[in-house]
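During the second year of the project, the team shifted from modelling isolated chains to modelling whole assemblies. The rationale, set out in the original proposal, was that interfaces cannot be judged from single-chain predictions alone. As a representative example for this report, we include one of the complexes processed in the last quarter. Its constituent sequences, exactly as entered into the pipeline, are reproduced here:
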Amino acid sequence: MNNYTENYIQTNESPQKYIRNKENTVEGYPKLQKLMDLKEQQLSIYSKKAYGCRMNIDKMTPYLKKWINEYSLNFDVVMIGCLTENQFLYPILRSLPIDKLISKPGFLFIWASSTKINELSRYLNEEIVTKKFRRSEELVFIPVDKDSCFYPGMANGTDESLLDKMQWHCWMCITGTVRRATDGHLIHCNIDTDLILENETPLVSSNSPSTSINEPSTYIKKNNCVPSEIYKIAENFSTATRRLHIIPGRTGMNTPVRLRKGWVIMSPDVMLNNFKPKDYISETKELLNLPEDPEIERLRPKSPIQKHKHKGTSY
Amino acid sequence: MNRDRDASVKEYDALYYYNDINIRLLTYLTIIYNSKRHKYNLDLFVISFNEYYKVKTNDNDIKRDLHVLINYYIDDGHSLLINDNVLVINDLVDIKILLDKVITSSSDKIKKKLPKNGKNEQKSIAADYCQMMNLLSASSETSSNRDSNKVNYLLSKSTSFYKLYRERLQHSSRKHKFHPVCADDQKSKHSLKILKFYNISLKKHVDWSKFKSQLTSEEITCFSTKTHFLPILIKYVTDIQLGDCSYLDTCHKFQQNNNNCKYVHYYEYNPNDNSIITEDPKTSSFVEFTETLDEIDPLFTFNVSNYRKTASRPKPVKCDIRKYDFKDLQKENFNAIIADPPWNIHMNLPYGTCNDQELFDLPLYKLQAPKINHHYNVFKSFNDSSNRFVYKKGGVMALWVTVRSINLGKQLMLANGYKIMNELSWIKINQLCRTIVTGRTGHWLNHSKEHLLIGYKGNVDEWLLLRQQDLDYIVSQTRETSRKPDELYDILERLCGEHSNNLELFGRNNNLRPGWVTLGNQL
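Output from the structure prediction step:
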């Protein structure tokens, strides 16, 4: 068995250099591969439009509050934060009535550096619990190496840190009741894992003409303040179509805020400003959840059917 | 003339105000804020403020502006306080938000005013604003951002301490053999070629340099230096369409009889050992004389335990930790502690679990208790009543947690006097060096990693000077259920010193290790 930690000390080669399924996590599992492809196809069929909502950080809460009250605007998936420092996470979380913004059941993802998450954990916990959310999973993102645009850098490592920090963390929280075994129309569990490794596909500037969409395996990644895998986890997990991403910070030119189909992205730097709450509600009310696909149903991992009902541990 | 100048100076000064908020003051607060030291003598604050901006603002004006800020603009009244003559900054969140608002709205004002007259002084004001903007948006990559880039660059450089320790570590030879794994084996292109020349059952060494006519030179170097995984295809049994077995080399069915599992298994082909550098295991550990002729403190190998050899034999102690008297352990000065408590995760497991209360009742606070050797009043002259304690020792604690118990783990460590510094992830890989993605290992998502909280007690600068050598994740193959990777021991020994005195709680026989005292009920 190789000791990649020792090898790192000796040669500075990062341990994940030798992980062989970074590009395609489900390599070697044709059934899972098929499932992933089908999910991607289904998503691309039903998510047609990308929304951007350009807004200063201090305006975010007042506007969202207004929209909740005036149009009863609701989202099923809300993601807060991205992979940059200088985010005003706590002020947003404190002032925002997330419990009213997110429908029930609903899913909340909070992304920040490991230091930030740790610093805020006590306060966040109180906020989250009082707003009736349960912390369900802890996600981790690790950049390829220290030259990656996602390297947390010095902003992340305080001088007192005992180890060299590379990670980004995410709290995945759930509100309302969903059951793994019975709510297959709402959630698909155990498709993705709680770990995302950045792959080494070179970053390509946005004006490069040859971005081949036909071949997903040779897909060229664009630099972005949010790696696409992070969106994908949320999309693969919840079948809901109303998704909001709040980025409470300026992100700069190296990590721009790109749009993604099926998401409303709210940030001071988002490249498009086309979100009107009224129109959005009328456009999305037709289809709140992706329809059930028999092939996906057949392939996706499911809870084993419990034979003994007397054991009351229902999942 | 003079009067004119005074008037114009006042006009420029007005530019530094937004309504009644003093923008310079706000900026200065963010500049001086330092999370370790957050109390400032008010008079000194005023002097340094004037010094920094090269102005002569009246003391009372600044104090008034401070009070305005606190009374009208800072939300909760905790982040900024003035007690007698001491300014206390507890956090910067509110101040930064306020500064952001103020600068965005007042930079418009500056733009309007500037074109009228192009004097140097005004240019300097504009530059001042740029600087303020940079403080807020340190991530934006504009050209005016060079200063903060420079600072970032300087701060990101590693220290000589770091470099020298890494150099020293690299002089000690490897403890483990390392076979690089081939990463370009797309669709088993390489391994199928190897199979043409190599017979798995015969295990006969192949000299790849003989096949120059049939293989490219890249293939020859790759085959003779890197590990490949050769698919074991059994006629009429293996079904390639099904893909790889989830258990691979740990598949019980396959181990019983190769015909029992239809999924693909692999044989690990390591190139001949002669072609890669081999190290003699005997010389692997770093040998250094324990006694030097002169009593000198080494400069950069500062860890006490690095040059003083202590207990070397593994010491198992079989006990029920919940009832164990920690008095005996209290006397020892452990450098590092690993604990892998059996958190109750509401599932049937092959071992007993502790409930949360039992874990919180453990007297962990007795361990690594820092000895307060002296304390003094840092702020004596500033009328501050709080005492600062200087700790002599302390230690590092590493606690394995599950997703459910991350929070409990943090509470447990905080309650016992530890400060949480790192969260290490163990990235679990399988035989084929792939992350584990199958098997419904978590409730909502599959789990490819486990979490370890790392905290310390005491003053790190006093003995933990060799930090940040290791990354905050381990990539390592899974072994028996709940057995953790051995890499952690090396990481902690690099951190605390090679001959450090360490303790493991809830350990098992496979955790026994020289230099470590192991406590557990399964020993």
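The mean pLDDT of chain A is 85. Chain A has ten helices and eight strands.
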